[in-house]
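Lecture 7 notes: from sequence to structure.
We start with the chain below.
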Amino acid sequence: MHRTIPLPADDQLPRDIREALAKLPPANVFRMMANAPASFHGFLQLARSILMQSEFDPRKREIAVLRVAHVTRSSYEWTQHVRVALQLGVTQQEIDRIGVDGAVQGLDEEGLLLCRVAEEITRDIRLSDEALEAIITRYGVRQATELILCCSYFNMLSRFLESTRVALEAAPVF
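Predicted structure tokens for the same chain:
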């Protein structure tokens, strides 16, 4: 038997969280986070800041997110973000190249840099001096910081998703 943390029912949640969930796509990631009510609103605020308020280009962000999802083996994160990436113009061929074991190949220079950053943060925790210099040079301080924060956030999220064993929804929600 495989143990999972159950998704909470509405009647188990505080009113403010029920109301917030009603305004969101019916994604299991949100409902699972509701099991930690003290963190729920902060989690949503951080997610919104990264996904909707960052200056960092969303298409480039999704390349990095997909590499984090692949390296962490987060099938939920991978599946959801493949959908988002396709909507933002990442091609299926690029996605296939991002989702490989070993070194990513066949992307343009920027795509390879994004995958390198995502992988170094995921595997090594600390970004190498060379990769840090490359993203500061390419994106400037603000967007380099946003990219690092994005990769760090999706590492946290993949660990949360995998450890709680969040199941993929039956139908796409994003």
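Points to note: The CA atoms of residues 71 and 102 lie 9 Å apart. The chain has a mean pLDDT of 97.
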